[in-house]
Amino acid sequence: MGFSKLMGIKNKRKKGFTLVELIISVGILSVAGAFILLFFAYSKDINTRAYDLDNSVYHSNYIIELLKAELWDEEPLIDMRVLETSKPPDSISKEIRFDNKWEYVELDEGHDYVLNLNLERNEDGVNNKDLYDVTIEVIKTKPYFRSLTKNMTIYSMETKVYISLEEGDSYD
Amino acid sequence: MKNKGSSSTELILTMLLLILFSLATISLVVSASGAYRGSVESIEDESQIRVAQSYLYTKFRQNLEPDKISIEKLPGVEKNGIIITDSVLGENIRTIIYFNEGYIREAVFFEDAQFDPNANYPIARLKDLEVNIIKGKGIEFETMSDEGKSFKGFVAFITK
Questions:
Q1: Distance of alpha carbon B110 from its chain centroid, rounded?
Q2: CA-based nearest residue to A145, from A69, A64, A16, A46
Q3: pLDDT band at residue B76, thresholds of 50, 70 and 90?
Q4: Are the Cβ atoms of B134 and A69 closer than 8 angstroms?
Q5: Which of A112, B12, B23, B143 is deepest in the core (most CB within 10 A)?
Q6: At what angle do helices A19-69 and B8-61 cross, to 10 degrees?
Q7: For chain A, which residues score pLDDT lower than 50?
Q8: Cα A61 to Cα A161: distance, rounded to the nearest angstrom
Q9: A47 at the B interface (CB within 8 A)?
């Protein structure tokens, strides 16, 4: 005679999970899975934004330093040599485009990021150097994950750079 | 009609759902851990690059005279090193920045002391570092992370 029978307890027959119970559990798992995947997608998005900010700062710094060194033959400054001629323009703008890996692309190619470089001649030039107010703005042309904002500004900076005039010329 | 037990169809369906449930759980755990690991590695990689770039920019900007910075072949080191000559409390010292065994390293020696590749401290972990001096203009450098991400930097010398 079994213990439960001796104690007067009726043994209920074990039926296991029903189909409905299993469907509900799979449903709950799917919802939990969707939230976990969303969490990782957000995490990756934050990482991408940080990487974009890093790149924006590196490229902006690089351009400012190239301007200071007046290296007109280096990639983004090509066609800006006009700044050191005897009749430099009062302002000059350039749009520099990048693909999704932050490589330079031509203006007619597909791009993900745009760096707008703008130089305005300042009145405070000295001797044989012009002073320019430099503005840089880096824009992401495509929206981030779950964002509807296109052309979002990632980074912007303002600084001043002296650019030498051609030998023999002087600042008026 | 009274249901006396599970039919074989119910049993098969239940087993199939159980298998589906297990597979879903396993794939969720595997993909989540893979994604998490990838994300952490990527963050670490970018962090190392950030440290390396900031360090190089800061060091070079503190020594922007063309004759203070040179690039030399160092004994026992795979790549050329950057030598920054400076004077501290009347003593000439050389700060040597070089890439060896996967790290940017810094070593400080008195001017007449022999360079020892073991006397250094690591700054940041990288895959590669390229440095080049553009005469009279500045110093350009390129850092490459373990994941192959590459960043270019340039610092202009101060000239008259």
A1: 29
A2: A46
A3: confident
A4: yes
A5: B143
A6: 20
A7: 1, 170-172
A8: 12
A9: yes
pLDDT value of position A8? 53
Mutate to test the interface with B, among A13, A36, A39, A65 (most CBs of B within 10 A): A65
Are B14 and A16 inside 8 Å of each other by CB? yes
Residue B25 is predicted with a pLDDT of: 84
Helix, strand, coil tally for chain A in percent (to 5): 35, 30, 35
Find the helix or strand (DSSP H, E) in which B14 lies: helix B8-61
The whole-number pLDDT of residue A155 equals 95
What pLDDT is attached to residue B71? 92
Q: Is the alpha carbon torsion for A142, A104, B148, B124 positive or negative? A: negative
Cβ-Cβ contacts under 8 Å for A28 (sequence gap 6 or more): none
- Measure Cα distances from A2 to A8, A15, B99 in Å: 10, 21, 78
DSSP codes, A93-106: EEEEEE-TTS-EE-
Dihedral, B130, A116, A79, A120 alpha carbons, nearest 10:
-120
Task: Give me the interface pTM, i.e. the ipTM.
Answer: 0.76
Structure confidence by residue, pLDDT tens digits, A48-91: 999 999 999 999 999 999 998 888 888 888 878 777 777 778 88
DSSP code of residue A166: P
Residue type, A172: D
- Cβ distance of B154 and A16 shorter than 8 Å: no
